[in-house]
Hints:
Helicase, Ruva Protein, domain 3; Muramoyl-pentapeptide Carboxypeptidase, domain 1; 5-stranded antiparallel beta sheet; two-stranded antiparallel sheet; about 5% strand
Amino acid sequence: MSYPTFLNNYFAKQSGYFSNIRNLVITCAIFPFLTHASIADENFSQCKANLVERAEKAGFSTYITESVIDNISPIKRVISLDKKQPEFTQTFEQYINARVTSYHVRVGREKLKEHKALFDKLEERYGIPRQYLVSFWGLETVFGKHKGKMSVLNSLATLACDQRRSEFFTLELLNLFTLIESKQVVVEQLQGSWAGAMGHMQFMPTAFLKYAVDGDNDGKVDIWKSEVDALTTAANYLQQIGWQAKERWGREVKLPDNFAFEKVAFDKYYPLEHYKQLGVLQTSNRALSSYDIQAELYLPSGHKGPAFLLYPNFNVIMTWNLSKSYALSVGILANKLVGAQGIKFANSQKNQISRYSVTEMKVLQSQLNSLGFDTGEPDGIWGPKSRNAIRLFQLQQDLIADGYPNKEVFTAMKSSFSKVKSTLSYSHSKS
């Protein structure tokens, strides 16, 4: 078969371990149009049979298709954990307080001193500031204390057989087979998180396969036991996915009391100058700089909570973990490791921030959909579509358009539905 030019170039750069077919497995993680049908099936035995067929088509040996896959078994707890991820079930305040702790800061600073020579070398070669590498390390495994003890093979297979994200985890599993077959890893060492992430920095198989570096030059990459390999791989990964060496992740800012929310759409980037003109200040009350950079305004708890301007490097962090709460944790911890105070938002205002449950959010999403404000399929998660839908509803109702599901939004929605019911009742009585 023939491939587009960009794929031929991609294949040409790969190491001698793999055939073009196996390279295609890696590429499918980036280019979904090259993927096959899902292997997902509620019957795990049938799902394994589908996996064997998929692996055979990818060119794997009988060791993989008959021995490795045959020994895979499901882990029921994995599906439960997948549905209860803290990014979706905790408030921003709860999430940050549980991860950016005094312990993380103290031990993180110790690690900066312990590995100073290594970080000097990594910064020079990859351009990644050391505090970010240590921040990822602390958040992922508490500096190697909690690397995970679940079978990575079983975890990935369980998720691949579940319909929700089957194709993503199937590709991760196939890339793990490539690591096994090329003898970069052995089955016995494959322990990690419930989602299949491995080692000190919790790399997924695809990231390991594409970005692994033998940092200590011992002839192999061991992201479980070698801190040097793990940190070097992390630096290479961040550089390769677009980290801008001379830029920060973002910053906390102060919004004026009369901030024009209608002039800022969320999940959208504007020039920094745009925010200066709207009266946004640094937390020190100084003006924002005139640096030529794009920024996104993010309010994790609405206008009554802290406000952040997010720069392009924030999206690089989110490539590692697609959660804004996680990415903010990385940035905030990195700042504290080098002497910053963390979030400066006034503690006295925290009790003003209204909370909502997943059930309440699902109901609100359904109501917004019924009024023509598209939130997608109601799932109880306050994501980009819901932020935009709430913002448009707030603008319609002359509320502060911060995109957050606060008490005022729920009250206005209740009122809107009462009016709709009254109108319907009146129309029915007239007919």
